[in-house]
Write a structure and sequence with these properties.
7 strands; single chain; globular; two-stranded antiparallel ribbon; alpha/beta
Length: 434
């Protein structure tokens, strides 16, 4: 709003940022995170900066994070029909990643990459033809040649061997490393206290939570000062956070104006409602825990940068939220940028002494834990839709295990194939028993 008047949708933060980038003199890319956003995609088509210039070149490029090939094809077509070219599809593991997690229906990273490997040429050609047709219809310049379309991947990569395998076998253009750089002060802004916690963390300190008010699974860190603050507020009988920034305020269950599910206001109202609902004690306890698990990300995710740079923290909200991927469990210590880069390219090894399975097998185990815990959670009657989802999830996991058996037996990876087969057999047995 401005002066009490509601402004048009294009003045929302995301659309304003997109417009500012499009009108800038930058020659760069914008990254759209996982999940289709119809309003932003529609707005892209109204911004000239994302179309080819008079020479047929792109000054502003679009990168989309995707969970699987189907998502890439659908979103790519939506934009191509507007004349917008996707310059990169960035594939991210559904669970073995930092920040918010977007689990697939049991589709594993290896099989997903295989589909891209087999179809990337046809995907590029189809989107290219649709873009050219859209440009002709709009009467605007089109490409002089078929533009580059990069296929990249990230999520759980931990060794130079794994990176080389992804690049060589799947023909990826590049591989992303994220969470390990939290241990590199030259590359990321982490306050000293949190940095030392990460440097000395145990494997069990990294976990998948529902701390995010967005309602999406969130990779979390048990030792953070934000988690300690959340627990202390519960002990004092005042769960929830004061809500000043209101960036994630979207719930209208109790109020006309949206409020955040991590806020003290919401949690007080929701807990009161649950206590009056007549739920059995064990179900009530679990339901309340789900409510109080929500934490303030608006303040917490920015606190580390403020503390590191000695910038005053407003409202005394200095507790740090940090969201590494579970792969960080295999790194201990604080490293220079050179040490991390040397590790990535095989010139050195800085991993810790924990037994580390291949990234594909690690992700498989994460999906089986997710399947056994989340899909078997007793939250009301089991519907036919829930049954079908669980069956599809399990079927995809079993097909993924079969794919990995064939892959590791046929492709040279430098791994002990017998040890990998044992892990896959154990995973399969655990899945079938669940």
């Amino acid at each position: 709003t401005k002066d009490g008047a509601v402004l048009p949708p294009e003045y929302a933060d995301a659309m304003s940022a997109l417009r500012g980038f499009a009108h800038s003199t930058l020659s760069s890319s914008v990254v759209f995170s996982a999940g289709y956003n119809p309003r932003l995609y529609q707005y892209l088509g109204q911004l000239d900066g994302f179309y080819p210039d008079s020479r047929g070149a792109l000054q502003k490029k679009v990168i989309i994070k995707v969970s699987d090939y189907r998502s890439a094809l659908i979103q790519g077509k939506i934009l191509a029909k507007k004349g917008i070219w996707v310059s990169e599809f960035r594939i991210e593991s559904g669970l073995n990643c930092g920040g918010h997690a977007f689990p697939t229906d049991g589709l594993l990273l290896g099989p997903i990459l295989e589909v891209f490997r087999q179809n990337r040429a046809s995907l590029r050609e189809e989107l290219y033809q649709q873009c050219r047709e859209a440009h002709a219809t709009q009467g605007i310049p089109t490409f002089s040649d078929m533009p580059e379309q990069r296929i990249t991947a990230q999520g759980g990569v931990g060794t130079a061997q794994e990176q080389a395998f992804l690049l060589d076998h799947y023909g990826l253009d590049s591989v992303g490393w994220g969470s390990p750089f939290l241990l590199v002060p030259e590359a990321t802004t982490v306050d000293d206290g949190t940095l030392q916690q990460l440097a000395n963390a145990r494997k069990e300190d990294y976990y998948l939570s529902y701390a995010s008010p967005l309602g999406v699974p969130f990779n979390n860190f048990r030792n953070s000062t934000s988690e300690a603050q959340r627990q202390e507020r519960i002990r004092k009988g005042r769960p929830g956070s004061p809500c000043y920034k209101k960036y994630l305020s979207s719930d209208t269950e109790f109020t006309e104006i949206p409020i955040c599910t991590a806020s003290r206001q919401y949690q007080h109202l929701k807990i009161k409602q649950l206590k009056e609902s007549g739920l059995p004690p064990d179900e009530l306890h679990e339901a309340i825990e789900r409510v109080t698990e929500k934490d303030c990300l608006c303040e917490g995710l920015g606190a580390a940068a403020l503390l590191k740079n000695q910038i005053p923290v407003k409202h005394k909200l200095s507790a740090v939220t940090i969201c590494p991927g579970p792969n960080l469990a295999y790194f201990s210590g604080v490293f220079s940028l050179k040490e991390m880069v040397d590790h990535i390219y095989g010139r050195a090894f800085i991993g810790n002494q924990l037994k580390r399975l291949h990234m594909f097998v690690n992700e498989l185990h994460m999906y089986i834990r997710y399947y056994n815990k989340e899909l078997n959670r007793k939250t009301g009657p089991v519907t036919e839709k829930m049954k079908r989802h669980k069956e599809i999830f399990k079927k995809n996991l079993l097909e993924g295990i079969l794919y990995y058996r064939q892959l590791f037996s046929q492709v040279e990876t430098g791994l002990d194939s017998a040890a990998v087969d044992y892990e896959l057999t154990q995973a399969e047995a655990q899945l079938l028993a669940g």
